[in-house]
């Protein structure tokens, strides 16, 4: 009986197809404020959130962060699930999460600025694969950043 159970588990595992995972969510928002004010608010927001900046070029409007490990240990599965949809891994256990962000800030007319945030989130599966897996963002990190920028440029009132 034990051999049959093991055999069935092996067959089921080999038949499971890996679902394609959208690696990133691109969130874009239009701010009713001049570029310089939005740029300053964006940089200030990243500093307040302690996000390590890899590169920043005001001329091109591009800011990228270094990889930041945002969770680990016993709390990792819950925290990863809060910000992203994990890929399907048979018997997978998740022990860490990390992300990098790319922000693109560009003028979009007179006193209007477009901000685009691309989050690349990964979760570490340590039981079956022992590798980092790309996750689909739920937009939580992006919303947190947009809310802070809007507050700083005066588009949003404090709750």
Order of helices and strands: HEHEEEHEEEEEH
Task: Count helical runs.
Answer: 4
* Biggest sheet details: 7 strands, antiparallel
* Number of E strands: 9
Mean pLDDT: 86
Radius of gyration: 20 Å
By secondary-structure content and strand pairing, the structural class works out as: alpha+beta
Beta fraction: 35-45%
How many domains?
A: 1
Q: How helix-rich are the residues, as a percent range? A: 25-40%
Shape: elongated
**CATH-level-2 architecture:** 2-Layer Sandwich
- Give the CATH level 1 class: Alpha Beta
CATH topology assignment: Alpha-D-Glucose-1,6-Bisphosphate, Chain A, domain 4
Low-confidence stretches: 5-23
Amino- and carboxy-terminal Cα gap: 60 Å
Write a structural description.
This protein is α+β, with helices and mostly antiparallel strands and 159 residues long. It has a single domain, classed as Alpha-D-Glucose-1,6-Bisphosphate, Chain A, domain 4, CATH 3.30.530. Helix content is 31%, strand content 36%. The chain is built from four helices and nine strands, in the order αβαβββαβββββα. The protein has helices at residues 2-15, 35-48, 76-83, 140-153, and strands at residues 24-31, 53-57, 62-65, 68-72, 84-85, 94-107, 113-125, 131-134, 136-137. The strands form two sheets. Strands 1, 2, 3, 4, 6, 7 and 8 form a seven-stranded antiparallel β-sheet that branches. β6 and β7 (113-125) form a beta hairpin. α2 packs across α4 (140-153). The chain is elongated and about 55 Å long. The protein starts with a helix and ends in a 6-residue tail after the last helix. Residues 5-23 have low confidence and may be disordered.
């Amino acid at each position: 009986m034990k051999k049959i159970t093991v055999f069935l588990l092996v067959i089921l595992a080999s038949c499971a197809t890996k679902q394609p995972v959208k690696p990133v969510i691109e969130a874009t928002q239009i701010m009713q404020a001049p570029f310089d004010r939005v740029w300053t608010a964006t940089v200030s927001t990243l500093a307040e959130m302690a996000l390590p900046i890899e590169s920043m070029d005001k001329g091109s409007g591009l800011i990228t962060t270094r990889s930041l490990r945002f969770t680990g240990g016993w709390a990792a599965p819950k925290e990863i699930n809060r910000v992203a949809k994990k890929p399907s891994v048979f018997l997978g256990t998740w022990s860490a999460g990390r992300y990098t962000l790319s922000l693109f800030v560009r003028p979009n007319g007179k006193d209007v600025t477009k901000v685009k945030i691309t989050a690349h989130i990964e979760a570490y599966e340590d039981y079956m694969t022992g590798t980092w897996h790309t996750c689909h963002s739920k937009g939580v990190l992006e919303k947190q950043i947009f809310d802070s920028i809007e507050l700083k440029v005066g588009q949003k009132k404090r709750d």
